[in-house]
Design a protein that fits this description.
Elements: H1 3-22, H2 29-51, H3 56-73, H4 76-93, H5 100-118, H6 123-143, H7 148-167, H8 172-185
């Protein structure tokens, strides 16, 4: 990654952080406009880095930054885009030596995104969220204890969602899970 690309990513992350401070409730139209612009530019940068086969760690960081921007928008299409960005970052994480805090942030962001996409109705997504959040929690306990409480809360939400869906007879998620259990036992 060239210095100007790294500076561009850093400036976009700074814009995202400034927007969070300026609009802490995240509901203003100006916030959404700013985050959409940031996400669009990060998306262009991430794709350009992939196309140029830039350093894997820089690509991972850029895809994570994009995922975080889309996650903050919180709309369904944004959450799907965040999931795609985090999936790309996760694929890169197996190829590079990322720092523990970067992996923790990746797992935490991806887990939160999947939990939001599950929306209390999709047990598979909630289970995937719990898996990633559990990994983030293990990393946080070892490398960043200050992050433990928020990750524990999100992990609790994911596990609670899975438990509710698993035990709720008549729900589509419960019926699909039960059908899979029958087929697997079969």
């Amino acid at each position: 990654m060239r210095a100007e690309e790294r500076d561009r990513r850093d400036a976009l992350v700074a814009r995202k952080n400034a927007a969070l401070q300026r609009w802490p409730n995240r509901a203003d139209d100006e916030f959404k406009t700013e985050l959409n612009e940031v996400a669009h530019e990060l998306d262009q940068l991430a794709r350009a880095l992939d196309e140029a086969q830039a350093d894997g760690l820089d690509r991972l960081r850029t895809w994570c930054a994009l995922g975080e921007a889309y996650l903050l928008l919180g709309q369904r299409h944004s959450l799907q885009a965040a999931s795609d960005a985090f999936r790309n970052a996760e694929a890169l994480s197996s190829l590079v030596e990322a720092q523990a805090h970067e992996l923790m942030n990746l797992k935490h962001g991806y887990g939160c995104t999947l939990l939001e996409l599950a929306a209390g109705r999709d047990m598979d997504l909630a289970s995937e969220a719990a898996t990633r959040l559990s990994g983030a929690l293990a990393l946080a306990r070892k490398h960043m204890p200050v992050g433990v409480a928020s990750i524990k809360y999100e992990l609790f939400r994911a596990e609670h969602t899975v438990a509710q869906l698993r035990g709720a007879p008549g729900t589509p998620a419960r019926e699909a899970h039960r059908a899979r259990e029958i087929v697997e036992a079969g």
